[in-house]
Design a protein that fits this description.
Helix 8 packs parallel to helix 15 (about 425-440). The protein is globular, with a radius of gyration of 24 Å. The two termini are about 40 Å apart. It contains 21 helices and eight strands. It has helices spanning about 20-25, 40-55, 70-75, 105-120, 130-155, 170, 180-195, 210-230, 245-260, 270-275, 320-325, 345-350, 355-360, 410-415, 425-440, 445-450, 455-460, 485-495, 500-510, 510-515, 575-580; strands at about 80, 290-295, 315-320, 370, 380, 420-425, 520-525, 545. It is about 35% helix and about 5% strand. It is mainly alpha-helical.
């Protein structure tokens, strides 16, 4: 999805009243023809919305990026950790910024760019039916941008016009309750669903109706569980238990399921590398599972460096917490299954376990090549031990190196020109949204599980989740909640592991008390690599597990996340001064 950039982002000094220059706010987004000549045809509008695809969807093309597969560490979670300690997200060390901090002119300028389109598309000489797909795209992107801001800051001003210096009242607009913002976001997506074509009528790599529905279901689940589990706290919404959003998530996800367009890929080979293969394809045009993705292209030099880092540790690693959550092949947790072989070695760990584990971490079994397709028919470079002898940013932080999402192809690794598609939505998430929403509403049935979670399990030959036969796990992350909720959350964690969902899940579940506070991230048993050069970069706890932050004094008693404060970011000081906002709780 590579487009020519016809417009530069028009920025706005939102809320910064005293620092704005009049001509700055009066600028139209820069175009290669005059604004008066624009807005006439469908092509004009599509040129404008191309800018949204370029600038508002990530591409992860920089050095040391791994697409979505490093986000669980970058954003802060219990699934992955960085080798270098950063206490801002999980350890309560963030400070209130003087400006910026996610609330900058650039952040709000993106919304202004969309609003500018929505104010001007009516100038088109084309019938609405001809241009409605572009209008639907604009509503989609405004919803996407506002959702990102709502996750960060909660209450927000709702701005639905491209501001000018005369819009003083808009610039002083109070922050509306997050529930109002959520309602407006979902209303934008209602319009997107109405105006966009279905998948069968959509152009390649452009947003279509079911993608807008997928975003709507994702947001509704987020807000529904946020309002349910933050109820009664400073982050909750007075009088709301989140049910209306959970109902929306359940309804929309079921409509996607009933559309007939989607299914899981590799349903008969999932247990034997079929699951792993979902995540490293260059072309998803024929995929029934990948709903929306970004295309890269070597011929036009629009590529990534992900493959280049596939054979390395990338300064990150999966955690013991995540690895321990994978069930055994009898459907029981490791705490109670007789099939569990212990964790002395990586080979022991994956034996008799959910096949998705063996397809998510590197294992020294001569079946996990770091590099293949080498020149002259040379032998594969098989994984033997985690990378510990490179620069810090190339080493593995826990001993559990990520295998999911890797591309071992020699050519792509060594020319630094990967073309592995970037997945934005896949059908597996829709199934999980439906199961979780119904479980949270208390209306889930065995038939619902068979349509959702059990389809995911069947792909990898795992036993069904049966409501009346759930085995108690003393290590459930949320012991105060029902066994079914715990198992639904487990399935989400496993199926979507290292795809960048975990941070948001912990935040919306108000889960830091159970999953973060007082915890020290651990990795694999170090002793299995005795004699490996430089293995002593790993420090261990009393039981021999790699303790990534053993020598970090700030982690002596585990993470010090502040549950009364850290679920939202602080409003920068300049906005407190200039717009008179109340600071987010306890900042």
């Amino acid at each position: 999805m590579k487009f020519i950039k016809y417009f530069s982002a028009g920025l706005v000094c939102l809320m910064a009243l005293t620092s704005c220059e009049k001509d700055f706010l009066e600028r139209s987004p820069e175009v290669n023809i005059s604004d008066g000549e624009f807005w006439k045809t469908k092509n004009d509008l599509q040129l404008y919305t191309n800018n949204f695809y370029n600038n508002y969807l990530p591409s992860y093309q920089g050095f040391m990026t791994q697409g979505i597969y490093g986000l669980d560490a970058d954003e802060g979670s219990d699934n992955m950790v960085h080798l270098n300690f950063n206490g801002n997200i999980l350890n309560g060390e963030r400070i209130v910024p003087s400006s910026g901090g996610g609330w900058s002119t650039g952040d709000w300028g993106r919304i202004r760019n969309v609003n500018y389109f929505l104010q001007n598309y009516t100038k088109s000489t084309e019938p609405f039916d001809v241009i409605k797909a572009q209008v639907g795209e604009a509503h989609y992107f405004r919803a996407l941008l506002y959702f990102d801001l709502m996750k960060k800051f909660g209450d927000l001003p709702w701005i639905d016009k491209a501001l000018t210096p005369s819009d003083i009242e808009f610039l002083k607009a109070p922050r509306a309750s997050r529930s109002i913002i959520a309602d407006n976001i979902l209303a934008d997506l209602d319009k997107a669903v109405l105006y966009l074509p279905t998948k069968s009528g959509a152009s390649s790599n452009r947003i279509y109706r079911e993608v807008a529905m997928a975003l709507q279901a994702r947001i509704a689940l987020y807000e529904g569980t946020w309002e349910k589990y933050h109820a009664g706290t400073a982050f909750g919404v007075t009088g709301s238990n989140g049910d209306k959003y959970l109902t929306k998530a359940a309804t929309v996800s079921k409509a996607i399921m009933d559309s007939g367009y989607f299914d899981l890929d590799n349903k008969t080979t999932g247990a034997n590398r079929g699951y792993w293969s979902v995540f490293n394809q260059s072309n998803y045009d024929s995929s029934k599972e990948v709903m929306f993705w970004r295309r890269y292209d070597v011929a036009s030099n629009f590529t990534t460096r992900w493959a280049q880092y596939s054979a390395l540790g990338t300064g990150k690693g999966l955690t013991k917490s995540l690895v321990d959550d994978y069930l055994c092949i009898d459907g029981k947790p490791i705490s109670s299954s007789a099939l569990y072989q212990g964790d002395a070695t990586l080979i022991d760990i994956v034996k008799n376990r959910d096949p998705r584990l063996n397809q998510s971490i590197y294992v020294n079994d001569n079946m996990h090549p770091r590099t293949n397709n080498k020149p002259g028919g040379a032998a594969n470079d098989e994984f033997k031990n985690p990378i510990v002898d490179q620069a810090t940013e190339d080493n593995c932080s826990t001993g559990f190196m990520r295998y999911k999402g890797t591309d071992p192809n020699y050519v792509k690794q060594f020319n630094g020109m990967g073309d592995q598609g970037l997945i934005f939505f896949r059908y597996a998430e829709i199934l999980l949204i439906h199961a979780e929403a119904k479980a949270e509403l208390g209306t889930i049935t065995q038939a619902d599980l068979d349509l959702t979670i059990n389809k995911l399990r069947a792909r990898v030959s795992m036993p069904n989740l049966v409501i009346g036969s759930i085995v108690t796990d003393p290590n459930w992350g949320f012991p105060a909640l029902s066994p079914l909720i715990n198992e639904v959350r487990r399935e989400r964690r496993i199926e979507l592991a290292v795809e960048g969902f975990r941070h948001d899940d912990i935040w919306r579940w108000a889960g830091a008390d159970e999953l973060i506070i007082g915890k020290k991230p651990l990795g694999a048993k170090k002793a299995q690599w005795t004699g490996v050069p430089n293995i002593d970069i790993y420090k261990t706890d009393a039981n021999g597990y790699v303790e990534t932050y053993k020598n970090v004094s700030a982690m002596a008693t585990g993470y010090k996340f502040r549950a009364d404060r850290d679920y939202l970011l602080p409003i920068p000081l300049n906005q407190i001064t200039l717009a008179g906002y109340t600071q987010n709780p306890n900042w």
